[in-house]
Each structure stands twice: as C-alpha cells, then as structure tokens.
Amino acid sequence: MHVLYLLVLTILPEIAWAAPPPTPAGTLFQTAWALMVVIGLILALYGLSKKRFFLKKGGNHIINVVEVRPIHPKSSLTLVEVRGREYLLGVGPDAIHLLAELNQSSEPQKQATDFSSLLAEHS
C-alpha cells in the first residue's frame, strides 16, 4: 500500500505538493465570509434569547412593571401593577420604598395613560 502511494506521488508530483499559496483577495474573502457567519450566529442567538425561546415562561403574570423612570444614576421611580392595583415605588441601590398606592378609591376613575400625568395627579 505504501509503495503504491509513493508511486502515485512520484508520477503526479502536483499531488505531493501543497496547494498554491493563497492570494490576498482570496484570503480576505475567506476571512470576511467567516466573520459574517460568526456575526450571523451571534445575532440569531441574541434574537432567540430576546424571545425567550430557550426559557419557557408562563403567560400568567401577577406583577407587571408598567414603567421605570430613572431620576439618578442608581435611583428610579417605578410604576408597578399587582393584581389590578398600581403602586409607585422608589427604587434605590439599597432599598425599595412604597411612595404611593395609586388605585385606593373604590369609585371608577379615569385611568391616566402616561407616567407623567399619574405622577402629577398624586403629588
């Protein structure tokens, strides 16, 4: 078997030698193609993780964060809805404080649609 291999290599010397050196354009094309494939895989995994494809999540949410408004680099006002009731929370780096419960009255009231009007209404 080895003799046959050596015979083929001596008869056809171009098989014995490595491929011709790559051209700069060919190398650039191969590098660009590999980079596009890697970036495509990263974007695909990012998109799947945003849709929570890997982690199944139930549809019944009891606590919903309606809006977060930063007021300082480490502090924010957060509007949270829990079982139909809204709470305005002050969230800091060390603690969370209840600032106001926004749905205390029993009579139906006109619901404000944006955070600024809710804040102005209860301050």
Automatic annotation (TrEMBL):
Similarity remark: Belongs to the FliO/MopB family.
Location relative to the cell: Bacterial flagellum basal body; Cell membrane
Keywords, alphabetical: Bacterial flagellum, Cell membrane, Cell projection, Cilium, Flagellum, Membrane, Transmembrane, Transmembrane helix
Organism of derivation: Desulfobulbus oligotrophicus
Domain of life: Bacteria
A GO cellular component annotation in the UniProt record: plasma membrane
Entry protein name: Flagellar biosynthetic protein FliO
Pfam families per record: FliO (PF04347)
UniProt record, GO biological process: bacterial-type flagellum organization
Transmembrane segments: 28-48
